[in-house]
Design goal:
It is a single chain. This protein has two domains: 72 residues, SH3 type barrels, CATH 2.30.30; 127 residues, no CATH class. α4 crosses α7, α5 packs across α6 and α6 packs across α8. The protein has eight helices and four strands; from the N terminus they run ββββαααααααα. By secondary structure, the chain is an alpha+beta fold.
């Protein structure tokens, strides 16, 4: 049987109220133990552990399942090198990751790399999934409030939309509108509408400036 670092072996009523993680489900983040029920099967104890995660309530049967002490996660307090490099956890939360921006390829390929970042909303599940993907923090609500996450998402979307507007404007200037339309046509329709909205906002804004 596989054993994990910081695995909790003493399963019983004293676990209630403790913060734990499931090693095989890091995307669930940290959870609070609500209840432990112990039965015996074949002369061996078996525990049904109820845990409340940010993503919902889960029940785990131990064995075969296992729970661990919460894993260490990046600290929010940055060192000066991180601060200068804009590499703190808070920075990563608000910025497009490098795998979305440092893509060498056609406009269609670059938009495809950006597409997943248009599939986030401020719905709680989506918000927490986005924050985990951005930072690697298993339980974002242990570090930020929901209001802070929503504010960070708004900043992220402004940065994302600004990047896309510049990308499309450069492509349109270099290859013409038809090439841009062809690249946009390769996107999922819902994503395509969001990309179009970001760029068309820039066009409207530019026209407003010209008319002042």
């Amino acid at each position: 049987m596989i054993r994990y670092v910081n695995e909790i072996s003493d399963i019983g009523p004293t676990l209630v109220g403790r913060i734990v993680q499931v090693a095989t489900k890091p995307e669930w983040g940290r959870g609070t133990v609500l209840r432990v029920q112990t039965t015996h099967a074949g002369g061996h104890p078996q525990h049904r552990v109820s845990i409340q995660f940010a993503v919902g309530h889960r029940q785990l049967l131990i064995p075969p399942g296992s729970i661990c002490e919460p894993a260490d996660e990046p600290e929010r307090a940055p060192g000066w090198i991180d601060a200068v490099a804009c590499a703190t956890v808070d920075d990563r939360l608000r910025r497009l990751p490098l795998d979305a921006t440092q893509v060498l390829g056609t406009l269609a390929q670059r938009l495809a790399a950006l597409a997943p970042h248009f599939c986030v909303s401020d719905d709680e599940r989506s918000l927490l999934r986005w924050a985990r993907a951005q930072t690697g923090v298993g339980d974002p609500l242990s570090r930020w409030t929901r209001d802070e996450l929503q504010a960070a998402l708004a900043q992220f979307e402004r940065h994302r939309d600004g990047y896309v507007r510049e990308l499309i404007a450069n492509a349109r200037a270099a290859s013409g509108p038809a090439a841009v339309d062809d690249a946009l046509a390769t996107l999922d329709p819902a994503v395509r509408e969001k990309v179009r909205a970001a760029f068309e906002w820039r066009v409207r804004d530019t026209r407003s400036d010209d008319n002042r």
